[in-house]
Amino acid sequence: MKKIGILHGKETSFPEAFVARVNSKNVKGIHAEPTLVDELVQGNPTPYAVMIDRISQDVPFYRAYLKNAALNGTAVLNNPFWWSADEKFFNNCLSTKIGVPVPRTILLPSKQMPPDTSAQSFRNMKYPLDWEKMIDYLGGFPLFMKPHAGGGWKNVYKVNNFDEFFRDYNETNTLVMLLQEAIDFDAYFRCYCLGGKFVRIMDYEPRNPHHLRYVADHKISKALREQMHDLVLRINHALGYDFNTVEFAIRDGIPYAIDFCNPAPDADVASVGEENFEWVVENAANMAIERALAHKEGGNNLTWGTFIHDSVADKMPSTPGGGSAAPKKASGKASKAKK
Hints:
Layout: E1 2-7, H1 13-24, E2 30-34, E3 50-53, H2 60-71, E4 75-77, H3 80-85, H4 88-98, E5 105-108, H5 131-137, E6 143-147, E7 157-159, H6 162-169, E8 177-181, E9 187-194, E10 198-204, H7 222-239, E11 243-251, E12 254-259, H8 269-272, H9 274-293, H10 306-312
Parallel strand pairs: 1-2, 1-3, 3-4
Antiparallel strand pairs: 5-8, 6-7, 6-8, 9-10, 9-11, 11-12
Helix pairs in contact: 1-9, 4-7
Protein backbone atom coordinates (compact mmCIF):
# COMPACT_ATOMS: atom_id res chain seq x y z
CA MET A 1 0.00 0.00 0.00
CA LYS A 2 1.35 3.45 -0.98
CA LYS A 3 0.11 6.01 1.52
CA ILE A 4 -0.30 9.70 0.65
CA GLY A 5 -0.30 12.10 3.59
CA ILE A 6 -1.16 15.79 3.78
CA LEU A 7 0.46 17.81 6.57
CA HIS A 8 -1.58 20.91 7.37
CA GLY A 9 -2.54 23.35 10.10
CA LYS A 10 -5.65 25.52 10.46
CA GLU A 11 -6.90 25.08 6.90
CA THR A 12 -9.72 22.59 6.39
CA SER A 13 -11.43 22.77 3.01
CA PHE A 14 -8.48 21.83 0.79
CA PRO A 15 -6.93 19.06 2.93
CA GLU A 16 -10.28 17.34 3.48
CA ALA A 17 -11.26 17.61 -0.19
CA PHE A 18 -7.81 16.41 -1.31
CA VAL A 19 -7.95 13.25 0.83
CA ALA A 20 -11.50 12.50 -0.27
CA ARG A 21 -10.63 13.05 -3.95
CA VAL A 22 -7.59 10.76 -3.94
CA ASN A 23 -9.53 7.98 -2.23
CA SER A 24 -12.56 8.43 -4.50
CA LYS A 25 -10.41 7.51 -7.51
CA ASN A 26 -9.98 3.98 -6.11
CA VAL A 27 -6.48 3.53 -7.51
CA LYS A 28 -5.31 0.09 -6.49
CA GLY A 29 -2.70 0.23 -3.72
CA ILE A 30 -3.12 3.99 -3.09
CA HIS A 31 -4.64 5.53 0.05
CA ALA A 32 -4.66 9.15 1.28
CA GLU A 33 -5.05 10.47 4.82
CA PRO A 34 -4.09 13.43 7.01
CA THR A 35 -0.48 12.89 8.10
CA LEU A 36 -0.04 11.51 11.60
CA VAL A 37 3.24 12.64 13.15
CA ASP A 38 4.30 10.31 15.94
CA GLU A 39 7.51 10.05 17.95
CA LEU A 40 10.37 11.20 15.74
CA VAL A 41 13.48 9.06 15.98
CA GLN A 42 16.46 10.02 13.86
CA GLY A 43 16.82 7.98 10.68
CA ASN A 44 13.46 6.22 10.99
CA PRO A 45 11.14 6.31 7.95
CA THR A 46 7.53 7.47 7.90
CA PRO A 47 4.74 5.26 6.52
CA TYR A 48 4.10 7.71 3.65
CA ALA A 49 5.26 7.32 0.05
CA VAL A 50 4.12 10.88 -0.69
CA MET A 51 3.47 13.82 1.60
CA ILE A 52 2.06 17.24 0.71
CA ASP A 53 3.40 19.94 3.03
CA ARG A 54 1.07 22.85 3.82
CA ILE A 55 2.40 24.00 7.21
CA SER A 56 6.14 23.50 7.81
CA GLN A 57 6.87 27.13 6.91
CA ASP A 58 5.26 27.99 10.27
CA VAL A 59 6.36 24.97 12.34
CA PRO A 60 10.13 24.27 12.39
CA PHE A 61 9.53 20.86 14.00
CA TYR A 62 7.57 19.79 10.92
CA ARG A 63 10.31 21.00 8.57
CA ALA A 64 12.83 18.78 10.40
CA TYR A 65 10.33 15.91 10.33
CA LEU A 66 9.91 16.26 6.56
CA LYS A 67 13.65 16.33 5.90
CA ASN A 68 14.02 13.06 7.78
CA ALA A 69 11.05 11.63 5.87
CA ALA A 70 12.63 12.67 2.55
CA LEU A 71 15.94 11.13 3.57
CA ASN A 72 14.11 7.86 4.02
CA GLY A 73 12.36 7.94 0.64
CA THR A 74 9.17 9.96 1.08
CA ALA A 75 8.35 12.20 -1.90
CA VAL A 76 7.75 15.43 0.01
CA LEU A 77 5.90 18.06 -2.02
CA ASN A 78 7.50 20.62 -1.85
CA ASN A 79 11.13 19.59 -1.40
CA PRO A 80 11.85 20.66 2.22
CA PHE A 81 15.57 21.18 1.60
CA TRP A 82 15.01 23.61 -1.27
CA TRP A 83 12.12 25.34 0.51
CA SER A 84 14.43 25.95 3.49
CA ALA A 85 17.04 27.54 1.22
CA ASP A 86 14.79 29.62 -1.02
CA GLU A 87 13.58 33.20 -0.61
CA LYS A 88 12.02 35.91 -2.75
CA PHE A 89 15.14 37.95 -3.50
CA PHE A 90 16.90 34.87 -4.87
CA ASN A 91 13.83 34.13 -6.98
CA ASN A 92 14.13 37.57 -8.56
CA CYS A 93 17.87 37.11 -9.11
CA LEU A 94 17.32 33.74 -10.78
CA SER A 95 14.61 35.21 -13.01
CA THR A 96 17.12 37.66 -14.46
CA LYS A 97 19.11 34.60 -15.65
CA ILE A 98 16.24 32.60 -17.16
CA GLY A 99 14.50 35.33 -19.13
CA VAL A 100 11.53 36.08 -16.87
CA PRO A 101 10.61 39.80 -16.61
CA VAL A 102 10.66 41.03 -12.99
CA PRO A 103 10.41 44.47 -11.36
CA ARG A 104 13.68 46.22 -10.54
CA THR A 105 14.52 45.20 -6.98
CA ILE A 106 17.07 46.01 -4.28
CA LEU A 107 17.75 44.14 -1.03
CA LEU A 108 17.90 46.25 2.14
CA PRO A 109 19.78 45.23 5.29
CA SER A 110 17.69 44.95 8.43
CA LYS A 111 17.05 48.29 10.13
CA GLN A 112 17.92 46.83 13.53
CA MET A 113 20.83 44.51 14.14
CA PRO A 114 19.84 40.87 14.59
CA PRO A 115 20.18 39.34 18.07
CA ASP A 116 23.72 38.56 19.19
CA THR A 117 25.27 40.94 16.64
CA SER A 118 26.93 44.31 17.00
CA ALA A 119 28.21 47.08 14.73
CA GLN A 120 31.36 45.02 14.33
CA SER A 121 29.29 42.26 12.73
CA PHE A 122 28.60 44.64 9.85
CA ARG A 123 32.15 45.86 9.28
CA ASN A 124 32.02 44.65 5.67
CA MET A 125 28.99 46.74 4.79
CA LYS A 126 29.25 50.17 3.21
CA TYR A 127 27.91 52.92 5.44
CA PRO A 128 25.96 54.99 4.80
CA LEU A 129 24.24 53.44 1.79
CA ASP A 130 23.51 55.70 -1.16
CA TRP A 131 19.74 55.90 -0.80
CA GLU A 132 19.24 58.33 -3.68
CA LYS A 133 21.22 56.11 -6.05
CA MET A 134 19.08 53.10 -5.15
CA ILE A 135 15.82 55.01 -5.55
CA ASP A 136 16.97 56.33 -8.94
CA TYR A 137 17.76 52.76 -10.09
CA LEU A 138 14.24 51.69 -9.10
CA GLY A 139 12.71 54.48 -11.18
CA GLY A 140 11.68 56.73 -8.32
CA PHE A 141 8.63 56.67 -6.07
CA PRO A 142 6.16 55.09 -5.50
CA LEU A 143 7.87 51.85 -4.44
CA PHE A 144 6.90 48.71 -2.58
CA MET A 145 8.80 47.35 0.41
CA LYS A 146 8.24 43.80 1.67
CA PRO A 147 10.11 41.03 3.52
CA HIS A 148 12.59 39.14 1.35
CA ALA A 149 11.53 35.85 2.91
CA GLY A 150 7.80 36.25 2.27
CA GLY A 151 4.97 36.16 4.77
CA GLY A 152 1.79 36.89 2.79
CA TRP A 153 0.69 40.51 3.00
CA LYS A 154 2.39 41.07 6.37
CA ASN A 155 4.87 43.96 6.60
CA VAL A 156 4.16 45.15 3.05
CA TYR A 157 4.44 48.92 2.51
CA LYS A 158 3.79 51.27 -0.38
CA VAL A 159 6.01 54.33 -0.02
CA ASN A 160 5.51 57.53 -2.00
CA ASN A 161 8.49 59.62 -0.89
CA PHE A 162 11.62 59.53 1.27
CA ASP A 163 9.73 60.52 4.43
CA GLU A 164 7.35 57.57 4.08
CA PHE A 165 10.19 55.25 3.16
CA PHE A 166 12.27 56.02 6.27
CA ARG A 167 9.17 56.02 8.51
CA ASP A 168 8.15 52.55 7.35
CA TYR A 169 11.69 51.19 7.14
CA ASN A 170 12.10 52.13 10.82
CA GLU A 171 9.19 49.80 11.64
CA THR A 172 10.73 46.71 10.06
CA ASN A 173 13.04 45.92 13.00
CA THR A 174 15.24 42.92 12.11
CA LEU A 175 13.44 41.98 8.88
CA VAL A 176 15.49 41.97 5.69
CA MET A 177 13.39 43.86 3.14
CA LEU A 178 12.99 44.08 -0.62
CA LEU A 179 12.57 47.53 -2.11
CA GLN A 180 10.86 47.12 -5.44
CA GLU A 181 9.70 49.10 -8.45
CA ALA A 182 5.93 49.60 -8.47
CA ILE A 183 4.37 48.12 -11.60
CA ASP A 184 1.38 50.22 -12.64
CA PHE A 185 -0.51 47.28 -14.10
CA ASP A 186 -3.36 46.95 -16.56
CA ALA A 187 -4.25 43.41 -15.45
CA TYR A 188 -3.14 40.99 -12.76
CA PHE A 189 -3.09 37.19 -12.60
CA ARG A 190 -2.38 34.48 -10.05
CA CYS A 191 -1.28 31.18 -11.54
CA TYR A 192 -1.19 27.76 -9.93
CA CYS A 193 1.47 25.29 -11.03
CA LEU A 194 1.24 21.68 -9.86
CA GLY A 195 3.69 18.90 -10.62
CA GLY A 196 5.68 21.09 -12.98
CA LYS A 197 3.05 20.66 -15.72
CA PHE A 198 -0.49 21.53 -14.58
CA VAL A 199 -1.08 25.30 -14.88
CA ARG A 200 -4.16 27.38 -14.12
CA ILE A 201 -4.14 31.10 -14.82
CA MET A 202 -6.63 32.89 -12.58
CA ASP A 203 -7.79 36.45 -13.20
CA TYR A 204 -7.11 38.39 -10.02
CA GLU A 205 -7.59 41.91 -8.69
CA PRO A 206 -5.35 42.60 -5.65
CA ARG A 207 -6.94 46.03 -5.14
CA ASN A 208 -10.30 44.44 -4.30
CA PRO A 209 -11.32 43.37 -0.77
CA HIS A 210 -9.87 39.93 0.00
CA HIS A 211 -13.11 37.99 -0.65
CA LEU A 212 -13.53 39.65 -4.07
CA ARG A 213 -9.99 39.37 -5.43
CA TYR A 214 -10.77 36.42 -7.68
CA VAL A 215 -13.84 38.20 -9.05
CA ALA A 216 -12.09 39.60 -12.11
CA ASP A 217 -12.24 39.19 -15.87
CA HIS A 218 -9.25 40.75 -17.61
CA LYS A 219 -9.43 41.18 -21.38
CA ILE A 220 -6.06 40.07 -22.73
CA SER A 221 -4.97 38.15 -25.80
CA LYS A 222 -4.66 34.40 -26.08
CA ALA A 223 -0.98 34.91 -26.91
CA LEU A 224 -0.39 36.74 -23.62
CA ARG A 225 -2.09 33.96 -21.66
CA GLU A 226 0.10 31.42 -23.45
CA GLN A 227 3.18 33.49 -22.64
CA MET A 228 2.25 33.49 -18.93
CA HIS A 229 1.64 29.73 -19.11
CA ASP A 230 5.15 29.21 -20.47
CA LEU A 231 6.74 31.58 -17.93
CA VAL A 232 4.99 29.75 -15.07
CA LEU A 233 6.54 26.48 -16.21
CA ARG A 234 9.94 28.09 -16.76
CA ILE A 235 9.98 29.48 -13.21
CA ASN A 236 8.82 26.28 -11.54
CA HIS A 237 11.16 24.05 -13.53
CA ALA A 238 14.07 26.27 -12.46
CA LEU A 239 13.02 26.32 -8.80
CA GLY A 240 11.81 22.72 -8.66
CA TYR A 241 8.50 23.37 -6.90
CA ASP A 242 5.73 20.76 -7.13
CA PHE A 243 3.10 23.10 -5.68
CA ASN A 244 3.44 26.86 -6.14
CA THR A 245 1.73 30.00 -7.39
CA VAL A 246 3.15 32.72 -9.64
CA GLU A 247 1.70 36.23 -9.83
CA PHE A 248 1.98 38.46 -12.89
CA ALA A 249 1.32 42.17 -13.27
CA ILE A 250 0.76 43.14 -16.91
CA ARG A 251 2.23 46.50 -17.93
CA ASP A 252 2.35 47.58 -21.58
CA GLY A 253 1.75 44.00 -22.66
CA ILE A 254 4.65 42.59 -20.60
CA PRO A 255 3.92 40.06 -17.79
CA TYR A 256 6.15 40.93 -14.82
CA ALA A 257 6.53 38.13 -12.26
CA ILE A 258 5.75 39.84 -8.95
CA ASP A 259 5.59 37.01 -6.45
CA PHE A 260 6.50 33.42 -7.27
CA CYS A 261 7.74 31.88 -4.03
CA ASN A 262 4.43 30.60 -2.65
CA PRO A 263 5.02 26.91 -1.88
CA ALA A 264 1.94 26.70 0.38
CA PRO A 265 -0.45 29.00 -1.53
CA ASP A 266 -3.99 29.77 -0.46
CA ALA A 267 -6.29 26.98 -1.62
CA ASP A 268 -9.31 27.64 0.58
CA VAL A 269 -12.61 27.41 -1.26
CA ALA A 270 -13.86 30.61 0.37
CA SER A 271 -10.87 32.51 -1.06
CA VAL A 272 -10.30 31.06 -4.51
CA GLY A 273 -13.91 30.21 -5.39
CA GLU A 274 -15.55 26.93 -6.34
CA GLU A 275 -14.20 26.65 -9.89
CA ASN A 276 -10.57 27.29 -8.99
CA PHE A 277 -10.89 25.11 -5.89
CA GLU A 278 -12.14 22.18 -7.95
CA TRP A 279 -9.18 22.54 -10.33
CA VAL A 280 -6.64 22.58 -7.48
CA VAL A 281 -8.19 19.57 -5.70
CA GLU A 282 -8.41 17.48 -8.87
CA ASN A 283 -4.91 18.23 -10.14
CA ALA A 284 -3.29 17.96 -6.70
CA ALA A 285 -4.89 14.52 -6.33
CA ASN A 286 -3.65 13.45 -9.77
CA MET A 287 -0.16 14.78 -9.04
CA ALA A 288 0.07 12.95 -5.71
CA ILE A 289 -1.18 9.68 -7.21
CA GLU A 290 1.37 9.91 -10.04
CA ARG A 291 4.16 10.44 -7.53
CA ALA A 292 2.94 7.55 -5.36
CA LEU A 293 2.85 5.18 -8.34
CA ALA A 294 6.37 6.27 -9.36
CA HIS A 295 7.69 6.09 -5.77
CA LYS A 296 10.90 4.12 -5.26
CA GLU A 297 11.18 2.63 -1.80
CA GLY A 298 14.04 4.20 0.15
CA GLY A 299 15.20 6.22 -2.86
CA ASN A 300 15.49 9.94 -3.48
CA ASN A 301 11.96 10.84 -4.53
CA LEU A 302 12.29 14.63 -4.27
CA THR A 303 11.97 17.16 -7.10
CA TRP A 304 15.08 19.25 -7.74
CA GLY A 305 14.94 22.23 -10.08
CA THR A 306 17.17 23.02 -13.02
CA PHE A 307 19.07 25.56 -10.93
CA ILE A 308 20.36 22.74 -8.72
CA HIS A 309 20.91 20.33 -11.62
CA ASP A 310 22.81 22.94 -13.61
CA SER A 311 24.85 23.90 -10.55
CA VAL A 312 25.93 20.29 -10.06
CA ALA A 313 26.84 20.17 -13.75
CA ASP A 314 28.80 23.43 -13.28
CA LYS A 315 26.57 25.39 -15.63
CA MET A 316 24.74 28.68 -15.33
CA PRO A 317 20.94 28.36 -15.13
CA SER A 318 19.41 27.71 -18.52
CA THR A 319 16.47 29.41 -20.16
CA PRO A 320 13.15 27.54 -20.33
CA GLY A 321 12.81 23.99 -19.05
CA GLY A 322 15.24 21.08 -19.30
CA GLY A 323 17.15 18.99 -16.78
CA SER A 324 14.60 18.96 -13.98
CA ALA A 325 13.21 16.15 -11.92
CA ALA A 326 9.90 17.90 -12.51
CA PRO A 327 7.95 16.69 -15.56
CA LYS A 328 9.00 18.60 -18.67
CA LYS A 329 5.89 18.20 -20.75
CA ALA A 330 3.32 20.90 -20.18
CA SER A 331 -0.28 19.78 -20.16
CA GLY A 332 -3.42 21.72 -19.55
CA LYS A 333 -3.71 25.26 -20.80
CA ALA A 334 -4.51 28.01 -18.52
CA SER A 335 -7.92 28.96 -17.41
CA LYS A 336 -8.56 31.51 -15.00
CA ALA A 337 -5.02 33.37 -10.62
CA LYS A 338 -2.55 36.51 -4.59
CA LYS A 339 -1.70 35.82 -1.48
